[in-house]
Batch of 2 targets.
Target 1
Amino acid sequence: MAKKILEVKNIKKYFPLQTNFFGKTQSWVRAVDDVSLYIEEGKTLGIVGESGCGKTTLGRTILRLHEPTGGHIYFDGKDITNISKKSLRKIRPQMQIIFQDPYSSLSPRMPVGEIIGEAVRVHKIVPKEEYKDYILDVMKKCGLQTHYFERYPHEFSGGQRQRICIARALALNPRLVICDEPVSALDVSIQAQIINLLKDLQKDFGFSYMFISHDLSVEEHISDNVGGMYLGSLVESGPKEKIFSNPMHPYTKALFSAVPVPDPNVKMKRIILKGDIPSPANPPKGCKFHTRCKECMDICKEITPFFNEYEPGHFCACHLYAQNHEALNNYMVLKNYLSGYKATQEKIDQIKSLTDKKLSSYDSLMVKMFIIDEKVEIYLKGRASDITEFNAKYLVNSAKVIKERKFSRVPIKFKVENEGDLSAAKDLIDTLMSANGYLKTATNEVTYTFTSSDDNERRSGSVLSIKPLIIDSEINKRKEAAEALKEKKV
Ligand SMILES: Nc1ncnc2c1ncn2[C@@H]1O[C@H](COP(=O)(O)OP(=O)(O)OP(=O)(O)O)[C@@H](O)[C@H]1O
Ligand code: SF4
Ligand SMILES: [Mg+2]
């Protein structure tokens, strides 16, 4: 994989909506809600989605034109989420944005040369004596004649103005350019010219783009990877070929069913989505798409699906594909059980009878929650990184439920069977520790068993074999204290 120029982890941007009498915010518009993505150097990530789904807010938050509400932004490997305005100004030339509307983004009182060159001068991109030649060169590269230098924006057509905007961004020698619907205000032939210009510049200078557009055929032309957004969240992302020819998520399936196919023998099966887009101020619980999804299951109304990687680089957030579908069901059973509803014997038998299978790469993990004789046994098996990313969150969720329901006397047993690299399990340990935080009560018996298929790791005494000891010793201390108390009473 090429180097990641941008990586975004769990980014959120909430706008305050309502305040109470004391000025405290009571509700928020969740314009961007827990988005994770990356862009490789020299590549283009297309972002598609219905109007209002948060594309522009995502782009602006990445550039910190909006301050993120949560999450992390890494540019060229450096965390820029909280860096000062001064440090941000230094890297600003490397991250540029091109807006949809070339009319309002150009100052009408400045000549074109000055518009393109202003930031070049401020950031001292070239020595003073080379300044004019540099700007003329950039103009030529963007298909603008050099005698336009002294002319004003109102003397140009829409396509030419967008070229001026591109030249302004390019002149700063950026590494990442966020293009927010840069061609949607232009007619089709000009659109093609601008797209080709962006592609040529990418080839010559190695820029990376995040390309936001409504127009899927434009995305198909320019993008290497594509991400589909719904109500502030990314529901699917992956290589363009996969997303266009074989989308996984029911929302992206509907979106891409509308792309015309240039083959008269292919019958288009357009999926029409029913229902209105819910308000981002009050998104549906569970999977945000469940109110419009034909495939909706019970679990979708309760639990937000994780954004899982199903093939290299192909991510999707949908319960339909979760390998551990059975784990989710188990989780539901556990949840119902703990809220006073007894799972049917049949269901419990079904869970008990799940047999261990040989794990393939796509079927690489397994979570089981046994409820046997009033005991909860949570069993995870798989690669540590998969366990970390996906299942440990369910673990913490179940721990929360247990805590909420004050089921403090339920003995809980975590059995973690790890395949492969133990160093990747650090996060898992942290998650278990946090679950432990929820579970700690004087009477809870929480045990952990960690094993590894990797003998070398085991011998070298990795994190796994150290941290559980700490947990065990804590538990032992508690046990001793409880026994001492018992003896005292006796
Ligand atoms: N500054 C703001 N204050 C409050 N709400 C905002 C603000 N900016 C955007 N929003 C809300 O955030 C949501 C996402 O808006 P955004 O402009 O990012 O959508 P978009 O996907 O770019 O839409 P479009 O395709 O129409 O450009 C919308 O509900 C919008 O009303
Ligand atoms: S999680 Fe459920 S509701 Fe959401 S897209 Fe998948 S099937 Fe539909
Ligand atoms: Mg927008």
Note: Residues 15, 29, 31, 49, 51-57, 280 surround adenosine-5'-triphosphate (ligand 1) (CB under 6 Å).
Target 2
Amino acid sequence: MMRRLFMFVIAVQVVGLALVAASAQVGNCPSRPAPGTPITNPLDLYSQNGTLNVALALNNGLDSDGYTHECYNYTTSGGTIEAPTLRLNPGDNLTLTLTNQLNLPANAARMKHSMHMGAMKMGAMKTTKPPLDTSCNGGTITENSTNLHFHGLNIPPVCHQDDVINTLIQPTDPPFQYQIRIPANEPPGLYWYHPHPHGFTTNQVNGGASGALIVSGIDNVKPQVAGLTEQVLLVRQQFLNPGSWLPGPYEMTLNFETVVTPPLHTLPLIVADPGEQQFWRVLNASTQAFVTLQLLYNGVPQNMELISIDAVPVTGDPYVTTINIPPAGRAEFVMTGPSEGTNAIFVNQGFDTGPVGNVNPAQALASIISSDDARIRNYHVPPKYRIPAAKVPRHKAPIRRSGQCQCHGEEKPVLFRSYRGHQRPHQLLPHSQRTTAHGVQSRSASRHRHQCGCGRGLDD
Ligand SMILES: [Cu+2]
């Protein structure tokens, strides 16, 4: 482990030398940030007067390193960006119009994939819409079929809301409208949207088709985050060959910025004032990486104040030095910025998923630069983003249940994850999973590992 960390130190030192110009647009997808540059939050789209209307188009491209990009394009007056953050209050209405513009070529890996998984026929089913609404009626799933899942939201699994069994949007279909009402009692916090066409979910999420959805009001429950600088951080993982049983080479990305670029290691930069408290909202939007997060300042793990796990506010002692997040999981916490000259890194210490599990190696995710150092190095620092005052009525803290459980032989306070309204089990988040204030531990840990370790991840 120390050798790896030494490499991280080296990586931090070469960051300044390894700035690479942003590549041009990739197919029909926007270019992604150059390695070694300061992280910026995704574009925020806010509901107004209880409504948020968003039009997204799912596109694809192939970059010069061979990675397939699948992007939720959003058109602004300044150009097209991908994967905006959707910000809504409890009780708000979201109308999301999704146009499927996928145009993926069938390559060998995908054809093989299709032979196993893809050429599935979905049966006809009851829908809430008339038969003319063909996107509600299933059909053949290919790599160019898609739909949307709103991960974590307590909304019904019906067509035009959160159904992913019978809803299939094909490139030949007209734009498809999702109409969702965020429940008035939805816990505030970090959720996300991603495609879920069975058999091709991994491919599409691997390509980057994912974005954050934030239900506002966390400062009602955890007032200590009010006014803090907010970093919305999406950890993604892109494989050269996502469709194979044993995936090919991969890269982690943080807000689409590549974390490792062979042969040089370059790290995304996160800027903080010395001693500044920042509210980090981290989503593990990888397809199969179990991450073990730490902040290392001159090699010493720092305290992080956990605010919530999977949009469930934590109880008990919130101070931790390690946070585990499984694929699709979220952790929100308060960190403190390093002083000038500190070698500060945000790391994934890796995770052992057992003898049949996939490899989850340790890897630095970002270099944390004090604003003083950033000025000295002349980095372009993105403007600070602070949580605006919540416009929601105060409601009861949405802590559902808590108690004690045995973790590694010790009694620990726990929160039990609620699946109220989440009508079907998510493969990677079994119902019996528990989330503790010290990360994720599971009663079904071995089952979980085996399930996830056999190669495929979010799919199936
Ligand atoms: Cu999901």
Note: Residues 402-453 form one domain.
